[in-house]
Every structure is written in structure tokens, then in C-alpha cells.
Amino acid sequence: GQQLNQSPQSMFIQEGEDVSMNCTSSSIFNTWLWYKQDPGEGPVLLIALYKAGELTSNGRLTAQFGITRKDSFLNISASIPSDVGIYFCAGQRQGGSEKLVFGKGTKLTVNP
Amino acid sequence: DTGVSQDPRHKITKRGQNVTFRCDPISEHNRLYWYRQTLGQGPEFLTYFQNEAQLEKSRLLSDRFSAERPKGSFSTLEIQRTEQGDSAMYLCASSSAGTSGRALLFGPGTRLTVL
């Protein structure tokens, strides 16, 4: 089952507003990833983080790998209507398994 | 090569029938993964291949499920005697070796509906 706690579950914002979402775990992770998924499509990789404390940007998106290695956040600045979708965090736990564990997603709605 | 491709995109079948899905990974990627996603949930890991070797399988992968990657390129996922609970999006992903290989690139998925 899911082992990542992602919040919030959903967000309704106005175009131009900034957005922040986060993911926490009780386990230590060696990789944090953020994906966006549109209806009926597969997840698209937004940002990959590989080191504790790492802060990475991709256009208006910024994500950080928490220092404790048990959390990560994603910020979206100046939101636009095409930011609508479901955002998932995913991580690879330290310890050898290759699988990614996913959060339940944050559904973002942007009102023009 | 523009990304991971999956076929078919949609499959409707009757309970008890067998279905098979195909995944073509990004050509230079030696790692291939299958995930399953149900409504309102994140993807859940099913199995992982490195080249042709199946190295990890989830407990979710019951004996009705089998995956192959015979030549280390494309992969197939077969579900035998489908049940209504098998209805889900089946996602394939691939990656390269090394640290950057932890970032999986997903295909568009195959939506399975079992009636």
C-alpha cells in the first residue's frame, strides 16, 4: 500500500497564485520525484531530487529534498490554467528496492 | 524514439477472459517497470526488469499475472481469468542505469475495464 503522505488532497486557486504541496514519509528516501498526471494519461516527470537538501527548479516549479530525507515539497509560482491536473510525489526508499512508492496525489484546479 | 509506448490504450473484456498488454520502452533504457493505478490512487508497483531478467515482483502480482521481457526490449503483461477487481490503468515505465535511472519515465497507460 501507499507509504507516502501527500497533502493537500486538493487545491482550488485563482490564476496567478502560488501553490505549495508536500509529501512526508516515516522512512528515509534516497530519491524524491514529482510527477503531473492528466486524465487518461500516464504521469509526466517534473522534477527529480537525489540528495538531501537539494533544491531544483524547472521553470515555475521548484522542489526540495528535505534534510531529514523523509519529506519533500513542490512549489508552483504564478499558476496558469494548464497547471490543472494531479500532482504525485514518489520516492525510492533507502535499502535496495528499485520500486517507487507514490503518494495519493494533489488535485489542482486553477480558476482563470 | 519519443518515449514509452503502450498498446492497447484501452481494453474492455469480460470476466474470466485473458488479456495481454504490450510496452515498448525508450530504446536505450535497460530497466522496465509495470505499475497499476486505480481511481483516486497513486501508481502501485507490480514488477521490474533489468534487461530480460525479472528482478522484483510485488505481492500484488498474483499468480494470474505474468510479465515477460524476452529480448530485453519490449515487455508484455498478461492477466489470466480476469476479475472485476483487475479494472485499472496499467502503466509501463522505463529508465536507464545509475542514479538518474531512479527517475522513471512513464508511458500513456492501458486502461482495462473488466465487465
Q: What are the salient characteristics of this protein?
A:
heterodimer, A: 112 residues, mainly beta, six-stranded mixed beta sheet, five-stranded antiparallel beta sheet, globular, B: 115 residues, seven-stranded mixed beta sheet, 49% strand
SSE map:
The complex is a heterodimer of chains A (112) and B (115).
Chain A: E1 4-7, E2 10-14, E3 19-25, E4 29-37, E5 44-49, E6 55-58, E7 61-65, E8 71-76, E9 85-93, E10 101-102, E11 106-111
Chain B: E1 5-7, E2 10-13, E3 19-24, E4 31-37, E5 44-50, E6 53-57, E7 65-68, E8 75-79, E9 88-95, E10 105-106, E11 110-114
Parallel strand pairs in B: 2-11
Antiparallel strand pairs in B: 1-3, 3-8, 4-5, 4-9, 5-6, 7-8, 9-10, 9-11
Short description:
The complex is a heterodimer of chains A (about 110) and B (about 120). With about 110 residues, chain A is mostly beta strands. Chain A is about 0% helix and about 55% strand.
Can you walk me through this structure?
The complex is a heterodimer of chains A (112) and B (115). With 112 residues, chain A is mainly beta. Chain A contains no helices and eleven strands. In chain A, strand 9 and strand 10 form a beta hairpin. Chain A is globular, with a radius of gyration of 13 Å. Chain B is an all-beta fold and 115 residues long. Helix content of chain B is 0%, strand content 49%. In chain B, strands 2, 4, 5, 6, 9, 10 and 11 form a seven-stranded mixed beta sheet that branches. Chain B starts with a strand and ends with a strand. Chains A and B meet through strand 4, strand 5, strand 9 and strand 10 of A and strand 5 and strand 10 of B.
Supply the number of helical segments of chain B.
0
Query: What proportion of the residues of chain B form beta strands (DSSP E)?
Result: over 45%
**CA-CA gap between termini of chain B:** 35 Å
Q: Beta-strand percentage of chain A?
A: over 45%
What gyration radius of chain A follows from the Cα positions, in whole Å? 13 Å
Percentage of residues in helical conformation of chain A:
under 10%
What percent of residues of chain B adopt helix (DSSP H or I)? under 10%
Oligomer: heterodimer
**Shape, principal axes of CA atoms of chain A:** globular
State the separation between the terminal residues of chain A, measured CA to CA: 36 Å
- The sequence of SSEs of chain A as H and E is EEEEEEEEEEE
What value does the average pLDDT of chain A take? 94
For the secondary structure, the number of strands of chain A is 11
- Overall structural class of chain A, as computed from helix and strand content, comes to mainly beta
Our count of helices of chain A gives: 0
